[in-house]
Specification:
The chain is globular. 45% of the residues lie in helices and 18% in strands. It is of the alpha/beta class. The chain has one domain: 3-Layer(aba) Sandwich (Glycerol-3-phosphate (1)-acyltransferase), CATH 3.40.1130.10.
Length: 197
């Protein structure tokens, strides 16, 4: 299901608008890793998945899984639920297991509230530390809907340089969370954009 939907999405995006990938060379060629990306709507989820060379497993808010048909569809697209207000142990166990088996996990640390933003970034750092995999910061810039895409607004995914989380204490993990925030902010401002090969 994932491969079929991905091919259809890539075809439709190529017809409906333009999308660009910057710094794709930063993506690890093997092994598991986490991609943390800015999030403005459902379209950036699709474009990020299309831009990655390997399938990605997304953490998604559990409310989306309350409808049976939608839940079954999302799971076939490699999404798994997470309670953003009160994360359970499975919120950590599932992505760690995926990462240790060499899979790619996508986390959107941005949210409508600052507290949610901080909590999810901390979660990404904690998961990376437990799984011993790198974190790849990324930003999405462009249309939020198909209507905006039809207006020839180009969508861009920019990847930052991956980094490992060697920290163990809460204080060290907090510092890594700040590092992730700074890298994503630098990408957003254009200070860390490299020329795509």
């Amino acid at each position: 299901m994932y491969a079929v939907v991905s091919r259809i999405a890539k075809l439709l995006l190529g017809v409906l608008g333009k999308y660009e990938v910057r710094n794709k060379n930063f993506l690890p060629s093997k092994g598991g890793y986490i991609v943390t990306c800015t999030h403005t709507g459902w379209l950036d989820v699709v474009i990020l998945a299309v831009c990655l060379p390997r399938p990605i497993h997304f953490m998604a808010k559990q409310e989306l899984f309350h409808i049976k048909l939608l839940s079954a569809f999302l799971r076939k697209l490699n999404a798994f639920p997470v309670n953003r207000e009160n994360p359970s142990p499975s919120s950590i166990k599932i992505p760690v297991k995926l990462l240790k088996s060499g899979e790619v996990v996508g986390i959107f640390p941005g949210g409508t509230r600052t507290t949610e933003d901080v909590a999810l970034k901390r979660g990404a750092i904690t998961i990376a530390s437990l799984a011993k995999v790198p974190v790849v910061p990324a930003i999405y810039e462009g249309p939020r809907t198909i209507r905006e895409l039809l207006k020839v607004r180009k969508a861009t995914i920019t990847f930052g340089e991956p980094f490992y989380v060697e920290s163990k204490t809460k204080e060290e993990l907090a510092l890594c969370t700040v590092q992730l925030s700074e890298q994503m902010n630098a990408l957003q401002s254009g200070r860390l954009v490299a020329v795509e090969e």
